[in-house]
Amino acid sequence: MERKDLKATDLAEAVWKKSSLSGNNGGNCVEVATNLPGMIAVRDSKNPAGSALVFTPDEWRAFLGGVRLGEFDR
Predict the structure, then answer these.
(1) How far from the centroid of its chain's Cα atoms is residue 22's Cα?
(2) What gap in Å lies between CA 60 and CA 41, rounded to an integer?
(3) I need a labelling partner for 22 at 20 to 30 A (CA). Which of 1, 16, 31, 62 fits?
(4) C-alpha distances in Å from residue 48, one per residue of 2, 51, 71
């Protein structure tokens, strides 16, 4: 699998979305940007100027599938 240089990833055009289930209570929330070509970016909503994790669409689909199947439940 080809990896991009993440330091060179430009997220300036990212459109960030927070879950509607997050509310405004200052809890632990993430924001996801799905509008970038060939990548999905995820960041901490409490630190929008901080770093972001970047995934390929296939990696993101695999993660979401694991969530739906309860693979990360304790």
Answers:
(1) 14
(2) 9
(3) 62
(4) 27, 8, 28
Helix (H, G, I), strand (E, B) or coil at 53: strand
Query: For 6, which DSSP code?
Result: G
Q: Cα–Cα distance between 26 and 4 in angstroms, integer?
A: 33
The pLDDT of residue 35 is 96
**Residue labelled with tokens 């799905």:** 34
Whole-angstrom Cα Rg for the chain: 13
pLDDT tens for each residue of the chain, 74 residues long = 455 555 557 899 999 998 777 766 666 788 999 999 999 999 998 898 999 999 999 999 999 999 999 999 98
